[in-house]
Specification:
Its main location: membrane. GO terms for molecular function: protein histidine kinase activity. It is an enzyme of class 2 (transferase). The chain has 299 residues and is of the alpha+beta class. It is built from 7 helices and 4 strands, in the order ααβαββααβαα. The chain folds into 2 domains: 167 residues, no CATH class; 85 residues, no CATH class. Helix 6 packs parallel to helix 7. It is rod-shaped, with a radius of gyration of 40 Å.
Length: 299
């Protein structure tokens, strides 16, 4: 089939094959780089927020709780500000009031919480159970779907490492009266020392970052395709000007000479291969003309 194509079409076909191979390889490599960078951006946001919440918890545990803990016995209502998890959640909810953080989520998902807003849903409960079944597992992360779109989550286990925590979570009899007044006697008890009771989870939106990476990829492919079309058009113009048109001219002259028109001449003034071919044709025409004259003299 290729032998039936003219030189221009053969050249364009070869160039197209090379382009498709190059664009497939470069597109694949660029796509992987964009996806990796997008995921790193999402993971970076999640890690920063996680460390911030851990700092809030530490601040509450070390500075707020010692000041407010004595009042738990005298206040009519429980003071949730003494709980590190409550402080972290409240700080994060204030952060979510900003439009750019509306779709960010923080939760200390617990299987049996005192405050039911911390109750783990089905997905969160499965994360907690993974931590409970493998004590060496220190972190889990991945993607999940939500009404807000695709979310990247990172989770760390919540373990009871201090005996002081058991005062509020061992039995109702040991808990402060204000806690029982506020939350009742049914939830948040029966915890054990070193038991994993929940998971600290940060969820950040991934759809926006991934969509930006996809747009960047499409822009890249569009630019590369446009550049290829421009280069292909320029090469075709140069091919016609420097190769195809001179060859067509020589073919026309050769055809005229074959019909007996010895006045036809090959006009090519360049010093490239086409010019040398034209000069060779002119020498051949001269030799042919001399040979015909010699034959005519002999007759």
């Amino acid at each position: 089939m290729l032998q039936n194509l003219n030189l221009s079409r053969k050249f364009n076909l070869l160039l197209l094959v090379v382009f498709l191979g190059a664009i497939a390889l470069s597109g694949l490599a660029f796509s992987r780089i964009l996806n990796r960078d997008a995921e790193q951006a999402v993971v970076g946001k999640a890690n920063i927020l996680m460390q911030t919440m851990l700092a809030v918890r530490d601040y509450t545990s070390e500075q707020i709780n010692p000041e407010l803990a004595p009042r738990l016995e005298t206040e009519a209502e429980f003071l949730p500000q003494t709980v590190p998890g409550y402080s972290a959640r409240e700080v994060f909810e204030n952060l979510r009031k900003s439009p750019e953080y509306t779709d960010f989520f923080y939760k200390e998902a617990t299987l049996n919480p005192t405050n039911l807003r911390d109750k783990a849903d089905t997905f969160e409960a499965s994360i907690v159970e993974q931590f409970r079944s493998n004590a060496n597992l220190k972190e889990l992360s991945g993607y999940r779907q939500s009404p807000a779109g695709r979310l990247y989550y990172t989770a760390k286990p919540i373990a009871i490492t201090k005996e002081s925590c058991l005062r509020c979570h061992s039995t109702p009899e040991a808990a402060p009266k204000s806690q029982l007044t506020t939350y009742g006697r049914e939830n948040g008890f029966g915890w054990q020392l070193n038991e994993i009771v929940g998971a600290q989870m940060i969820s950040v939106p991934a759809s926006g970052v991934i969509d930006s990476a996809r747009r960047a990829f499409l822009l890249f492919m569009g630019i590369v395709t446009g550049a290829f079309l421009l280069v292909m058009s320029l090469l075709n113009w140069l091919l016609r000007r420097a190769v195809i048109n001179p060859i067509k001219g020589m073919a026309t002259v050769a055809n005229e000479i074959s019909l007996g028109n010895m006045d036809a001449d090959f006009q090519q003034k360049s010093n490239d291969e086409i010019g040398k071919l034209a000069a060779a044709f002119n020498r051949m025409k001269t030799s042919l003309s001399m040979a015909m004259e010699m034959l005519g003299q002999r007759e």
